[in-house]
Amino acid sequence: MTPPPLLDVRGLTVEFTAPDGAAVRAVRDVSFTLRRGETLAVVGESGSGKSTTALALTGMLPGTGRITAGRVLLDGRDLAGAGEPLLRTVRGARIGMVFQDPMTALNPFLTAGQHLTEVLRAHGHGGRAARTARAAELLALVGIPDPRRRLDDHPHQFSGGQRQRVLIALALAAEPDVLLADEPTTALDATVQDQILTLLDDLNRHTGTALVVITHNMGVVARSCARVLVMYGGSVVEDGPTAEVLTRPAHPYTAGLLAAVPRLSAPSGTRLTGIPGAPPDLALLGEGCAFAARCPAAEDSCRTAAPPLLALPGGVRAACPPAKDRTAPPWTPPPPGPAARPAPGPVVLTAEDLRKVYRRRGRAGRKHPRTALDGVSLTLAAGETLGVVGESGSGKSTLARVLAHAHPADGGILRLRGEDITRPARRHRHTARREVQMVFQDPYASLNPRLTVGEIVAEPLIAFGLGDRAARDHRVTGLLRQVGLDPATAHRLPRSLSGGQRQRVGIARALAPGPSVLICDEPVSALDVSVQAQITGLLTDLQRELGLALVFIAHDLAVVRQVSHRIAVMRQGRIVESGPADEVCERPRHPYTRALLAAALSPVPGVHPSSGAGTGAPPAATAPAGSASRAVSA
Amino acid sequence: MTASAGTPVDTSASTPGPAAASAPAPRPAAGRRRSPYRAALSTPRGAAGLALTCLVVLAGVLAPLLTGHDPTGQSGQGLLAPGAPGHPLGTDDLGRDLLSRVLYGIRADLGVIAVAVPLGAALGCLCALLAAVHPAADTAVQRAFDLVLAFPGLILALAVTAVLGPGRLPVILVVALAEIPVFGRQLRAGILVQRGREYVTAARVGGTSPARLLTRHVLPNAADPLVVQFAVSLTVAVFLEGAMSFLGVGVRPPEPTLGNVLGQAMPYLDRSPHLAAGPLTAVTLLVLGLSLLADALNRETRR
């Protein structure tokens, strides 16, 4: 007989009240159990209700959110209807939480030690000296070197990864039975993500704390959790052992999501497969299966009644009645064949020894300027994609902005078809700008909220004085079709579009003046995995049709490898390695590239993607920074 | 009043790609969103504010129709109690009809603030635009704002009247002067915030000229706080005008304003408190109405 589960969630339903007074169900009938010491991943895309579920467990729903049905049993005690006093004794003491953004989750006025002792005091832990000792112990537990001394440091003195470690220490301070980590590594670089996941793994093994990791990243699931709960549109669609679910997905959504995850092992030129359509709008969701609208195997019954979770062999449960009689995989996505790519043409854009220095305010800032670009050279041919990878602060975004003339370069030469456009005269700047356009990372921030889609796309046409009104309208319609949007979208405001649609608008705007170079600064990193593939596919198609030269900047090596002809790896404002995409990923030369490859996560459980790339300790940690001093040209 | 937080949008705040969730609950018109200003005015708070403000403004505008008495016409019947025949609010010490003095006082007040606040707002915005052009201009404008802000409103008022003498013009000047830095700073901050936004960079890369960048992308998105500020400034102007007239450095008697009617009631406060009741009520209603309006606008535009 197995012991009763530690946490038993039954039929949890959470509703929000929309501004117009309608009730929106963000979580529908979610049930799962968690045993002591178990690791569970809750995976899903935006709007899947995964974070809301986590917040509902400890009664921390924001705003108008409320639990309308179901029970949350912690050791048999119901938390769903519990009052604030009981919940306060549970939060921290029984269920600890770690949030996504380590940069904003710590109070900048308090030291790490003060943060920790405050929590310890709240949970009635010993005297002052005992608390300080325990705080140092906790910092040591989460792997912060020299914990005694670091207690007196303020948050800004810790790196991003260390801050996340401090937050984990805070969550562990009262020795909870469950650690709830909501996207604990999303804001972190790949190498740091790897360290944090290792830490969570160790903590689970050594302290026996049950771990619930909420994430959108299949790689994190495969890496850190034994069991997985896949959520979509507020409901659980599949639930089972990670190894089983990730290798033999029973639900079409899980299968589609896995197919959409870019694999580092896929060679350059492989087309990503996405799930057609966009994640559902919770307010519009009917009674049926949330995925029915995008499901290739949907039957009529799927659209009318919510499918129950059915037990399948292998300990898996899937909310897909047709899956029960299915023997073949629910959905075989089109084989990831190589996309037809024409050979690159003549060189369009060259950069030689680009430099960019940011001088901060004040004397100290002037004395120690931050070098964002330190002698970057690259060439780009028509019809070619140059992938630029690097972690945060490596200068990738600065490079994009300098190439697109959004910021002036402080040194170096930029040539467009041999002509110097580094500091163009006012007259020539327009030509240079027309030829080099940019797609931005954040499809929310990069569209003016007050203009309609049509006005946004027409803006560059007006700015460059292209065509009269009728010609512009015609061109806008053509551009929207080209990026796969209904021309009727032109009259809508960006806020009524989904993330993928907005990114398409951003691409249409960039294409409007007929550029020959498109600089894409993290064009897919703010998008859901199932939508990512649509956008990268679109960019590849556009490149083929228009002969565009693309600079594709991203932090995810797997995406970059599939999209790019060549890859340049950036670190501290320099290109440390560059070469053909497959060459760089298969036979990395620079230790930093090897570290990046080693830290990349694969959605296949138990497989480390970089088996050929020298695993073990990340060389970046050991390699002195000076080893990157030789600037490589891409 | 719906709580501004807690729409389903918030639930996905911690997920990396808030794609679907941030498409808000579908509104009847998926295209143009409803004007936040109209939405603000239809909330109970906004409607109450609008009603109160309209009530006071109408009373002032329709003053000649609402009372037959000349606000400066004296009579032999001084200090009549409210309800006296022909004088619903009674008369003041010089036998002038109090109702007509209050109504004409509102009229005079409105005349001052309706000129002064838009003037101050326009000049302030102009300064902010100037500051947006060049860092040097920015520093100059900012320090000039500091200089004006260094004087409390009343000291400024006294300084101006010391030069110009009391009257309507100095009041307008003082109110406008006090509002210039407020609007200037507000707009400058808005411009700085919007200029850092990615869509402005996108427009710049898209070849948009600096002037068009400002008028099409930056200013429309920086304007919302100004509308709210306008409503707030109107209340401040009512106070400032009242205070100046009360102290006798504002609009010159015998022309009534809310401030000087109140000022003239002061010596009789112990015997005839009703003299002060009229102007006080008018000021209170006007300020309350404007504050409610400002608050409603603020809540809606910040969503």
Offer a few descriptive terms.
heterodimer, A: 634 residues, Rossmann fold, 2 domains, eight-stranded mixed beta sheet, six-stranded mixed beta sheet, 22% strand, globular, B: mainly alpha, MetI-like fold, 13 helices, 68% helix, elongated, ABC transporter permease (chain B), transport (chain B), MetI-like (chain B), transmembrane helix (chain B)
Describe this structure in words.
The complex is a heterodimer of chains A (634) and B (303). With 634 residues, chain A is an alpha/beta fold. Chain A contains 22 helices and 22 strands. In chain A, the strands form four sheets. An eight-stranded mixed beta sheet of chain A has the order 6-7-8-3-9-10-12-11, sandwiched between helices. Chain A has a six-stranded mixed beta sheet with strand order 18-19-20-15-21-22, sandwiched between helices. Chain B is an all-alpha fold. Chain B has one domain (36-65, 99-301): MetI-like (MetI-like fold, Orthogonal Bundle), CATH 1.10.3720. Helices cover 68% and strands 0% of the residues of chain B. Chain B has 13 helices and no strands. Chain B has helices at 8-11, 36-42, 44-61, 63-66, 98-133, 135-150, 153-164, 168-195, 198-205, 210-222, 224-246, 258-265, 274-301. In chain B, α8 (168-195) packs across α10 (210-222), α9 packs antiparallel against α10 and α11 packs parallel to α12. The radius of gyration of chain B is 24 Å and the shape is elongated. Chain B starts with 7 loop residues before the first helix and ends with a helix. The chains are: A alpha/beta (634), B mainly alpha (303). The interface between A and B is large, with 81 and 46 residues.
Secondary structure topology:
The complex is a heterodimer of chains A (634) and B (303).
Chain A: E1 7-17, E2 23-34, E3 39-43, H1 50-57, E4 66-74, E5 77-78, H2 84-90, E6 95-98, H3 112-122, H4 128-141, H5 147-150, H6 160-172, E7 178-182, H7 190-207, E8 210-215, H8 218-224, E9 227-232, E10 235-241, H9 242-247, H10 252-260, H11 300-304, E11 310-312, E12 316-318, E13 347-358, H12 362-367, E14 370-381, E15 385-389, H13 396-403, E16 411-416, E17 419-420, H14 426-435, E18 436-439, H15 453-463, H16 469-482, H17 499-511, E19 517-521, H18 529-546, E20 549-554, H19 557-563, E21 566-571, E22 574-580, H20 581-586, H21 591-599, H22 619-622
Parallel strand pairs in A: 3-8, 3-9, 6-7, 7-8, 15-20, 15-21, 18-19, 19-20
Antiparallel strand pairs in A: 1-2, 1-4, 4-5, 9-10, 10-12, 11-12, 13-14, 13-16, 16-17, 21-22
Chain B: H1 8-11, H2 36-42, H3 44-61, H4 63-66, H5 98-133, H6 135-150, H7 153-164, H8 168-195, H9 198-205, H10 210-222, H11 224-246, H12 258-265, H13 274-301
Helix pairs in contact in B: 2-13, 3-5, 3-13, 5-6, 5-8, 5-11, 5-12, 5-13, 6-8, 7-8, 8-10, 8-11, 9-10, 11-12, 11-13, 12-13
